[in-house]
Amino acid sequence: MKNYISDSVSRGSITYFLIRSSSDGKIVDLPTKYLKHKYHMHQSRKTIKKAALVLSWYLNYMDEQGLTFEKVFALSYSTQQEHFVGFLHWIKAGRHAEGHTSTDNNTANSYLRAIFGFYEFLIVEYENFPDLKVLDDATVGYTTTAGIRFKKNVKSFKGYLPKKTTKASSISEDDIKTLIATCTSKRNKLMLLLLMETGLRIGELLGVKYTSDIDYENQKIFVRYRSNNENGALAKYAEERGMLVSPSTFALLQLYLAENADLLKDTEYLFISESGVTRGKPLTESAVYSVLEGLAKKTSLRTHPHALRHYFANERRKAGWDIAMISRSLGHKNIATTESYMNVEENEITLATEDYYKQTTALIDIDDFI
Question: CB 138: neighbour CB atoms within 10 A?
Answer without folding.
Answer: 10
